[in-house]
Specification:
The complex is a heterodimer of chains A (296) and B (132). Chain A is of the alpha/beta class and 296 residues long. Chain A has two domains: 164 residues, Globin-like (Orthogonal Bundle); 112 residues, STAS domain (Transcription Regulator spoIIAA, 2-Layer Sandwich). Chain A contains eleven helices and five strands; from the N terminus they run H-H-H-H-H-H-H-E-E-H-E-H-E-H-E-H. Chain A has a five-stranded mixed sheet with strand order 1-2-3-4-5, with helices on both faces. In chain A, strand 3, helix 9 and strand 4 form a beta-alpha-beta unit. Chain B has one domain: 2-Layer Sandwich (Transcription Regulator spoIIAA), CATH 3.30.750.24. In chain B, 47% of the residues lie in helices and 18% in strands. Chain B has five helices and five strands, in the order E-E-H-E-H-E-H-E-H-H. Chain B has a five-stranded mixed sheet with strand order 1-2-3-4-5. In chain B, strand 3, helix 2 and strand 4 form a beta-alpha-beta unit. In chain B, helix 1 packs parallel to helix 2. Chain B starts with a strand and ends with a helix. The chains are: A alpha/beta (296), B alpha/beta (132).
Chain lengths: 296, 132
């Protein structure tokens, strides 16, 4: 017992790898043996803490079993690869269900506590041994918690990036409505990034569709700041250099004020009240004549 | 060959095939202006479709060329400005007050408009006014 007491002062670093290698299998065997009761206790604590409220009890039961087994496996093999894959897979399934980061981190920490408690109970007779067991257990457990949390956050970020890309793709359609007439309806917030994307799409669209007139409809944009307003004016100029004239429709009073504030040259900007007027003007420029048939 | 200057009826078609340095630009300018006189051209098309970049000196030279050609009696249209080049020109404030068109075909059509039949047709400004 006295030797054990001196061990208490030993830092975990001094507890050598050999000792861990000896203790971990014992630990793993213990956790395997008490798998059912520990897992159930864990589930109870999850429910008690109101975590994973968006999942059914059956789902929680099956996921906790998988997590438990993975957890023990990591303790045994020391490799987090399989766990990382599983955690990513799990995240993919539960993120659409609205599971939050704190819940995922919470359940892993709960499992860590539940298992640590059971170790306390098992080794309470031998304090020195308990210490060594915890020295072996804690770094591994921390690594597991870390891996799961990072995988979850990574997965979330991946989803967010994917959605951002999707929004970016959708946000600036360039539509041809007549031969050599393009329409760009813009809805939502027009920030710097989206404005430069708009310019790029528009200029390339002019070339591919051989457009002569472009109608940019910004009815759906409430307000823009001065850099974006400047960018808009530049886009109009650049389009002109490519041989297309631009008509801007649906300017809100705020945007009109911003454009005047930055001192835009009104001779260069062709603006018309609404989209209908813009299309009519564009048709006139291109020499289209739209008329009703007699029956209508 | 860095540039080619071809005669097409009353017009000259000058294509720039590669980025030109300052001396080459001046040489190009001189060549075009001389040929306007030789061929009694009424219009010049400068095709810059092969250029991925155009610096401020380049765009200034093109503008000067257009103005000189104007004084020699020919209207200049710049065609084939690439999207990135167009935006760079605007962003750097290198305003090009020269008529522009999408490509050679459009440029020829625009020149026909700018130089109708006789030499004293409508001025460039009139037509530009109609377009904008």
């Amino acid at each position: 017992m006295t030797t054990n007491v001196s061990d208490i002062g030993a830092t975990p670093e001094q507890g050598d790898a050999e000792e861990h290698a000896k203790l971990l299998p014992e630990l793993v065997a213990h956790l395997r043996e008490h798998r059912t009761e520990l897992r159930e206790e864990w589930s109870t604590r999850i429910t008690g803490a109101h975590l994973l409220s968006s999942m059914t009890p059956q789902e929680i039961a099956s996921e906790t079993t998988s997590v438990y087994d993975n957890y023990v496996e990591v303790l045994e093999t020391g490799s987090v690869e399989a766990l990382r894959r599983y955690a990513r897979d799990l995240s993919e399934r539960i993120i659409p269900r609205g599971v939050e980061t704190h819940e995922v981190v919470g359940i892993v920490l709960l499992l860590r506590d539940v298992l640590a408690r059971s170790l306390f109970k098992k080794y309470q007779q031998d304090f020195g041994l308990l210490n060594r067991v915890l020295d072996a257990y804690e770094p591994a457990a921390n690594r597991i918690a870390n891996t799961v949390a990072v995988s979850f956050v990574d997965e979330r970020e991946r989803v967010i990036r994917q959605q951002q890309d999707a929004i970016r793709e959708l946000s600036t359609p360039v539509l041809q409505v007549r031969e050599r007439l393009l329409i760009l309806p813009i809805i939502g917030v027009l920030d710097n990034q989206r404005a430069s994307q708009l310019t790029e799409q528009l200029l390339h669209g002019i070339r591919t569709h051989r457009a002569k007139v472009v109608v940019i409809d910004i009815t759906g944009v409430a307000d823009v700041d001065e850099p974006v307003a400047n960018h808009l004016v530049n886009t109009v100029d650049a389009s002109r250099l490519m041989g297309a004239s631009v008509i801007i429709t649906g300017l809100s009073s705020e945007i009109a004020q911003t454009l005047v504030m930055i001192g835009v040259d009104l001779n260069k900007m062709n603006t018309i009240g609404d989209l209908q007027g813009g299309i009519e003007e564009a048709e006139r420029l291109l020499g289209f004549k739209v008329s009703k048939t007699d029956e209508a | 060959m860095l540039v080619s200057i071809l005669r097409q009826g009353d017009f000259l078609i000058a294509s720039i095939h590669t980025a030109l340095d300052d001396t080459e630009l001046l040489r190009f300018q001189q060549d075009v202006v001389t040929q306007i006189g030789t061929h009694r051209s009424r219009g010049v098309i400068i095709d810059v479709a092969a250029l991925d970049v155009l610096d401020s000196y380049g765009s200034l030279s093109l503008r000067n060329l257009a103005h000189i050609a104007r004084l020699r009696g020919a209207v200049t249209v710049i065609v084939g400005i690439q999207p990135d080049v167009a935006f760079a020109i605007v962003q750097l404030g290198m305003a090009v007050d020269v008529p522009t068109a999408l490509d050679l075909e459009e440029g020829l059509a625009l020149l026909e408009q700018l130089t109708p039949g006789n030499r004293r047709g409508r001025s460039t400004l009139d037509v530009l006014g109609d377009l904008s």
